[in-house]
């Protein structure tokens, strides 16, 4: 009995996962990374870890151990960073940190309800970062940090703060760069709340209950503020007047509110000669139902606008006028109608248009006729049938670099028609689903050029790939033929892209029983091969012998019964970093199967039927970090086999 449970325990320990941690070097890490590094238990209190021994404890971290007050050892030592995480901390004694010289203090997931005014006395010239998320603060502890001359990062997120005072952040005017107040219960910003924060760059007010932002709130300006996050509040319009003084504002995130229109509510009267210049406008998941003409009259430049998830049914003419916009993402909006001149005002600026996941059935003729700069167009997952492609795409033909027409419900793409209409010689990326053919042949791509690098033909009912299919598109680097029903890949299918193809994926898409080894022989540049989720039962031991650049091999979820010794060879596969045979039918691993693979870091053999692992099955795998063998039938192994060294030596 006893021995059996010990064996089971040993089995769990060794066979579950064998991880060898890689330690990042201290020199390269930033303060967040340093904090997360694992250090040894402190000599003066083994419940916490310390990067150094007293009198200078360096980085101290106490996690999930009970400390209702700060640990004693801290008071009499120097400490660089202190992080108390979920320790039941209820209070900070005044003056306690007085002599520590702390640079960063993080007290997270505790029960602090208030911070004494003298909590940080003594840290005036040392504390740069004060981080207090997930506590029970109900007010901003202004007096505690007012004298911290260096404080540049203040995080009070996930508390219960309801109010803000006029002088909440007084004292931090010349130091504070980042202020995080997200996930509190702030309903109102009072006038001049943030007055004088001369170098504040980021202000995060997401996840509060703001329903309005008074024009006076930012009136004194924050001359460096470039990022304002207001996501997940209850704002019903964009507070243009309040934003006007923020001359450096570049990113405005006002997603997940209840905004119903981009225009200001005119019943307020005077507003708005305001003209914002933004790099990013996030307005996803609001309640915008329509974009009438001139919706952007308060926006002069917006490089990228994100409208995803608004219930916008219709795009009217001049919807984006008069802004200059480079990229529009309007995904999952339920769009059904687009005016033929909806985008006309953007003819000289629009570069990326992503309308994927909508309900479009047609595209008006001439929609893109004057668009000289359009590079990327995605119409993925709509129900589009393009009646006269010539008309639709006419003028973008020489510029379009990326076109995505994939999706079950989009009408079939006839590649010949597509090439006829657009002569897509410069195209770099093409993604389609349905085609009017079940086999890929060279003729399909006759008028494409060598610029084409990414090709995805998925959900297409393809059955075969013929010899020399890629002879006109010799530059393909990434090929995805997933979700098809491909039974034949002729031996010379990839002859012309052997030197260029880096990634080849055919997941849920291959119906053969054997890996098409002969076809793969051409792929000497290939770095990633993914044949997962197919029905492969066998693979020749020479399948990968020409794939000398292979880094990642994904063969999970097949029915492979055996990996023959010699399939992987040290002198050929010197770059191979990761192999997955998860969820196959392997029964045993013989001697020297994984041998001499100098770059191999991860080897996944979980969920097979492995009963037997021969001695020296894994050998000379110097970089191996993870060997996983979970979910096999290794119970019959002798005690001896649990010795890790037994596998490796
Ligand atoms: C912490 O140290 C300071 C001086 O270094 C001392 O004045 C104070 O009493 C100490 N507090 C505690 C609780 O030990
Ligand atoms: C515009 O603002 C007024 C005053 O707050 C409000 O009564 C009205 O409902 C708003 N209009 C819309 C369309 O929300
Ligand atoms: C828009 O993008 C261009 C090019 O990246 C950049 O020079 C410009 O500053 C951006 N405009 C704004 C308002 O950020
Ligand atoms: C898209 O159209 C289908 C019917 O054609 C409808 O069931 C669905 O709700 C529409 N989706 C949206 C987001 O409007
Ligand atoms: C392609 O264009 C040629 C002439 O320009 C025409 O004869 C042919 O029918 C077109 N093919 C398709 C598929 O539209």
Task: Note the topology.
Layout (H helix, E strand, L loop, with lengths): L1 H15 E3 L11 H6 L12 E2 L8 E5 L8 H4 L5 E5 L18 E5 L20 E3 L10 H4 L7 E3 L22 E3 L21 E3 L22 E3 L10 H4 L7 E3 L22 E7 L7 E2 L7 E8 L7 E2 L8 E6 L7 E2 L13 E3 L21 E3 L10 H5 L8 E3 L10 H8 L6 E4 L6 E2 L13 E4 L6 E2 L12 E3 L7 E2 L13 E3 L11 H4 L7 E3 L21 E3 L23 E3 L7 E2 L4 E2 L6 E3 L7 E2 L4 E2 L6 E3 L15 H5 L1
Parallel strand pairs: 3-4, 4-5, 5-6, 6-7, 7-8, 8-9, 9-10, 10-11, 11-12, 12-14, 13-15, 14-16, 15-17, 16-18, 18-19, 19-20, 20-21, 21-23, 22-24, 23-25, 24-26, 25-27, 27-28, 28-29, 29-30, 30-33, 31-34, 32-35, 33-36
Antiparallel strand pairs: 1-36, 2-3
One 2-acetamido-2-deoxy-beta-D-glucopyranose binds next to helix 7.
Notable traits:
649 residues, mainly beta, 26-stranded mixed beta sheet, three-stranded parallel beta sheet, 36 strands, 18% strand, disordered N terminus, binds 2-acetamido-2-deoxy-beta-D-glucopyranose
């Amino acid at each position: 009995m006893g021995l059996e449970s010990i064996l089971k325990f040993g089995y769990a320990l060794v066979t579950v996962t064998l991880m060898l941690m890689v330690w990042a070097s201290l020199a390269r890490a930033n303060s967040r990374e340093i904090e997360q590094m694992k250090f040894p238990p402190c000599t003066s209190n083994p419940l916490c870890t310390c990067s150094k021994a007293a009198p200078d404890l360096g980085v101290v971290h106490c996690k999930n151990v009970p400390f209702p007050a700060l640990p004693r050892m801290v008071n009499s030592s120097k400490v660089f960073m202190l992080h108390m995480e979920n320790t039941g901390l209820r209070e900070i004694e005044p003056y306690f940190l007085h002599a520590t010289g702390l640079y960063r203090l993080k007290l997270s997931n505790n029960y602090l309800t208030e911070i004494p005014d003298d909590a940080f006395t003594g840290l005036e010239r040392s504390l740069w970062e004060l981080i207090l998320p997930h506590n029970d603060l109900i007010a901003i502890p202004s007096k505690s940090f007012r004298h911290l001359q260096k404080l540049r990062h203040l995080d009070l997120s996930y508390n219960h703060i309801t109010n803000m005072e006029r002088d909440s952040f007084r004292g931090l005017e010349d130091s504070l760069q980042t202020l995080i107040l997200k996930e509190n219960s702030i309903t109102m910003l009072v006038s001049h709340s943030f007055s004088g924060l001369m170098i504040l760059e980021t202000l995060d007010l997401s996840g509060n209950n703001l329903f309005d932002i008074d024009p006076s709130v930012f009136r004194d300006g924050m001359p460096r503020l470039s990022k304002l996050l207001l996501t997940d509040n209850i704002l019903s319009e964009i507070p243009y007047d309040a934003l006007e003084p923020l001359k450096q504002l570049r990113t405005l995130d006002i997603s997940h509110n209840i905004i119903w229109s981009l225009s200001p509510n005119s019943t307020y009267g005077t507003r708005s000669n305001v003209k914002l210049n933004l790099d990013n406008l996030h307005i996803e998941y609001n309640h915008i139902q329509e974009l009438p003409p001139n919706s952007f009259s308060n926006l002069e430049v917006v490089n990228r606008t994100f409208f995803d998830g608004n219930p916008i049914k219709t795009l009217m003419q001049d919807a984006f006028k008069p802004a200059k916009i480079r990229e529009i993402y309007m995904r999952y909006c339920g769009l059904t109608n687009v005016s033929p001149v909806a985008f006309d005002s953007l003819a000289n600026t629009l570069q990326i248009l992503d309308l994927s996941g909508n309900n479009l059935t047609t595209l008006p003729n001439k929609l893109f006729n004057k668009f000289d700069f359009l590079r990327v167009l995605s119409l993925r997952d709509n129900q589009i049938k393009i009646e006269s492609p010539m008309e639709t795409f006419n003028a973008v033909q020489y510029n379009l670099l990326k076109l995505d027409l994939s999706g079950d419900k989009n009408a079939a793409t006839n590649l010949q028609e597509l090439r006829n209409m657009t002569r897509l010689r410069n195209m770099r990326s093409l993604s389609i689903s349905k085609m009017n053919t079940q086999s890929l042949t060279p003729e399909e791509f006759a008028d494409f050029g060598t610029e084409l690098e990414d090709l995805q033909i998925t959900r297409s009912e393809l059955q075969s790939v013929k010899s020399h299919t890629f002879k006109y598109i010799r530059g393909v680097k990434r090929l995805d033929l997933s979700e098809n029903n491909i039974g034949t890949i002729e031996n010379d299918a990839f002859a012309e892209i052997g030197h260029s193809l880096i990634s080849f994926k055919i997941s849920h898409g291959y119906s053969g029983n054997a890996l098409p080894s002969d076809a793969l022989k051409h792929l000497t540049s290939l770095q990633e091969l993914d044949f997962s989720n197919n029905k492969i039962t066998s693979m020749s031991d020479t399948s990968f012998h020409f794939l000398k650049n292979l880094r990642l091999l994904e063969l999970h979820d097949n029915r492979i019964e055996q990996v023959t010794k010699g399939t992987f060879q040290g002198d050929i596969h010197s770059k191979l970093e990761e192999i997955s045979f998860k969820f196959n039918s392997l029964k045993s691993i013989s001697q020297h199967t994984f041998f001499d693979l100098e770059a191999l870091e991860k080897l996944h053999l979980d969920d097979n039927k492995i009963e037997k692992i021969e001695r020296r099955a894994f050998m000379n795998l110097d970089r191996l970090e993870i060997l996983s063998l979970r979910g096999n039938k290794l119970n019959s192994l002798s005690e001896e086999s649990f010795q890790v060294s037994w596998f490796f030596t």
